[in-house]
Amino acid sequence: MPMFGLADVNSFYASCEALFRPDLRGKSIVVLSNNDGCVIARNAGAKALGIKMGVPWFQIKNHSYREKVHVFSSNYALYHSLSQRVMIALEEITPRVEQYSIDEMFLDLTGIDSCEDFEHFGRRLREHVLNTVGLPIGVGIGQTKTLAKSAQWASKEWKQFHGVLALTPDNPKRTTTLLENQPVEEIWGVGRKIGKRLNLMGIKNALQLAQSNPRFVRDNFSVVLERTVRELNGESCIPFEELPSSKQQIICSRSFGERITSKEAMRQALCQYAVRAAEKLRGEHQFCRHIGIFIRTSPHAVNEVYYGNSAGEKLVLPTHDTRDIIEVVMRSLERIWLDGRRYMKAGVALDDFTPNGVTQLSLFDEHKPREKSAQLMNALDGINQSGLGDVWFAGQGVNTAWKMKREMLSPAWTTCWNDIPIARIK
DNA sequence: TCTGGGGTCCTAGGACCC
DNA sequence: TCTGGGGTCCTAGGACCC
């Protein structure tokens, strides 16, 4: 019988910010989204102050608790590197780990119980990560991914579990009690919309959903929710996936630090996103056959008519060449750009991948692939990843006002030599 | 004045085919 | 009065995740 674990770092971004700042132990911390837009992470202290997830920063920055809370811009270089460390620490103890998100890993714990009690294992894991990386994790264990998620949720919700909870078939009463106490919107796979609809039908907790007829759920909702019902009953439908699956789509988009009003600035921004998207594409060892862009003004602005539009092209030849991607992006912008708008956000999306650039060329095909494209892109990526130099495309521009706002950024403690933490002994 | 970014999967509907 | 049916492919949009 399969058994799944879920390890989740507590208040991940906030915990990362505290890791190299011993002076912040026990203080309230929040982390803001890109552009210092809204709150995307809070530690226990910040939650206790009543700071809600997702609130816009400008709404609370003059609040009376402002003095008590330490605020940070998102520092993804730091979070990614610490996420890797957690992953490595988990792999030292668990044979198979699936990285599910930046702060969550599924664990294949099948058969572990032949030598160790599940909860004992979970506690050992927790201590190991705390000792080697310094970050606190919670561990949930169950017969399906959904049950492991529910267990992890409960391990946070009730203090007596101390961050580790196992739902095992030999104690069905425990599972029933947990599900009875879990509101339906807290189940993995049930969001706000479906949660509301379920509530209207009188299905308010996870146990009620688990006891619903799967056929009824499929007909009235979807096969996705039917799967959730089955998973809540211990029937594993979502498999463990150790190898990261290859991407179907790559998106690079940002809100601007300042509104963009000139086409030239928009060209620079899109050019930069195109360069980054192309790098990611090559990192995936893929070629794309579709390139798209979108631009939009702020949907929140009063006294302004909202404008949002997208455009793109299907390619005859798959590409991973930055020059091709920039070309299409610029042509697409010509088709949807409108003067006189204050643009807030734009992005580049690559789609429809194939593992190589070679397709059957017809004898009379006018479209010829670029010569030496792969070598040039290789050289470019090599230089930019070496840390020794920086090569960029003329269209990208330098140091412009629309660039992301990050006024409260912490140092890149783990990824930049200049920022390495220094310990002083008194 | 100020509201994240990056993904996945599924479904419905239209175009087209025989 | 009559106006098939079934299949595929594509796209847009909606739901979800963190």
UniProtKB/TrEMBL annotation:
GO terms for molecular function: damaged DNA binding; DNA-directed DNA polymerase activity. InterPro entries: DNA/RNA_pol_sf (IPR043502), DNA_pol_Y-fam_lit_finger_sf (IPR036775), DNA_pol_Y-fam_little_finger (IPR017961), DNA_polymerase-Y (IPR050116), DUF4113 (IPR025188), PolY_HhH_motif (IPR024728), Rev_trsase/Diguanyl_cyclase (IPR043128), UmuC (IPR001126). PROSITE patterns: UMUC (PS50173). GO terms for cellular component: cytosol. Pfam families: DUF4113, IMS, IMS_C, IMS_HHH. GO terms for biological process: DNA repair; error-prone translesion synthesis; SOS response. Keywords: DNA damage, DNA repair, Nucleotidyltransferase, SOS mutagenesis, SOS response, Transferase. It comes from the Bacteria. Residues 4-191 form the UmuC domain. CDD domains: PolY_Pol_V_umuC. Its EC number is 2.7.7.7. Belongs to the DNA polymerase type-Y family. This is Error-prone lesion bypass DNA polymerase V. It comes from Buttiauxella noackiae ATCC 51607.
